[in-house]
Amino acid sequence: MAVSAGTLRRPAEGGLWSTVWEWLTTVDHKRIGLLYFWTVLFWFLLAGVEALILRLQLARPDAGVLTPAVYNQLYTMHGTLMVFLVGTPAASVFANMVLPLMIGARDVAFPRLNALSYWVFLFGGILLNAGWLAGGAFDVGWTGYANMSTRPFTQSIGANFWVMGLIVLGLSTMASAFNFLVTIINMRAPGMTLMRMPLMVWALTVVFILVIFAFPVLTVALIFLWFDRFYGTRFFDVAAGGNVFLWQHLFWVFGHPEVYILILPAFGILSEVIPTFSRKPIFGYSTMVLAMGAIAFLGFSVWAHHMFTTGMGPVGNFAFSLSTMLIAIPTGVKVFNWLATMWGGRIRWRVPMLFAGATVLLFILGGLSGMMHASPPIDSQQQDTYFVVAHFHYVLFGGLVMAMFAGVYYWLPKLTGRLLDEGLGKWHFWLTFIGFNLTFFPMHILGALGMPRRIYTYPAEAGWGGLNLLITIGAYILALGILVFAYNLLRSLRKGEPAGSDPWDGRTLEWSIPSPPPEYNFEEIPVVHGRDAWWEQKRQRRVAPVGGGSNGDPHAPGEGHQPGPGREVIHLPKPSIIPLVLALGLAVAGVGTIYHPAVIALGLAITIGAIVAWAIEPPLQGAVHSKE
Length: 628
Description:
18 helices, globular, two-stranded antiparallel sheet
């Protein structure tokens, strides 16, 4: 008889403190995925509140809801949160939730490094927002353009917290990237070759490669800015021989690969959800993989299309216009493959599929307006108008956030063991879809009418008041949809319908194990014989789910899955408080660079002590998994 799914779980004894301690010390990738998820959700809600306040100010001409200074701080921090605290960690959220399960691994390569990446992310986010409590947040815009962000032009302490927060967040993102790349390379199940990996795993692989090459460039730019602000260097001061465009080049060499760091997890989600609910294999698997690789390569060749109006000249404009048009080709390949997968399929319009289908539509609209900006003359007219705001949100909210909702409805039941309510989910979808389009589609028209972005107010005679009121109404409808989602989440944790092991008739290995998965993921490491490994095994009746049949029946028979005799020792990672302490030390040192050298010394002492403890702490604990 095989051991039950919960045999190796540590007992939850000791009440509330014991539960809190388990979460503080966890190195289980599934729990870390949930920590990432709830933290990202908090930042998402905060960024949404900031956006709603901005829309109140712009709902009518000559409004006085906000002062110009507070308006600038709100739009800067809204953009920063959405890009760096919601979009960027999306890869880490879903990688922790399901990547080891999808490749048939019992864990990630470096469990403590994985925990460290979360705690550094948490403290980095707190640092980024600490300016609100210290006299005022950063107010230059989420791109932080120099020399506006240097000390002569921005003396607020919020700018210091913004720079240090992004440096710390970069450490978190890099740690996560190295951990998951090593996991993907070294820990795939037997038989899972690279061209048998699920497309979600391929998407995350490309994301983490982009992170490793792109984030150091941003870190260099931030260090230059830090030295200018604190130590009298003048990297961006033209009068001292610096170059004000240096920041723009460094930022966008990072920033355009960052766009694909944001959107590729969405591509991976769509590539799993659409085949599952179309009941068909993905159309053109190999071309999808090649398209992701092409996007990664070309993503580093298009950065200066953000700089068409800086006077690069015709040669530079032509080169970056051409590369921008070229990158639309692999992106278009993916869109056509998703549509071809749906064509002729027996589509089930469950909530994950509703969000996936809407994502394809909205991303196409965002991509079409993006292609307009590939033309320097058109871009010169639209550069600083609301047309760009509309394009950006159609790509990143319509393309990323909508796909994230699809992924949450699809995979969160695997971790919690409970389905989200379908009725509430559809209310969430329609309110979000309608509210989104009411909010952002009219911005195309406002941009064409000449309304600049980043303005605090506008006169009544400009004729923009009616559309701005419609946009504000749409924003609050969108917010209502998000509230329904939040309620659905909380309700499902207590009253949600049990998910079973395979509620969607899934295609990949995570659906072969119980929901929620045992701590060790797989009782026996699966052997993969092709793409869509679990779907093929169910159809050919080679194997039943570990701990449950293909329909969630724990007594369903399975062929070819007979536990052998003997005893196996499964080594589980040891819970550890050290990643939290090490992240705290880094955060304290970061605060010290802003306030006082003594605080730096304290942070470094904590950090060094944690590193020493990390080196001597045994990383593994053994657990006997018995079989008869």
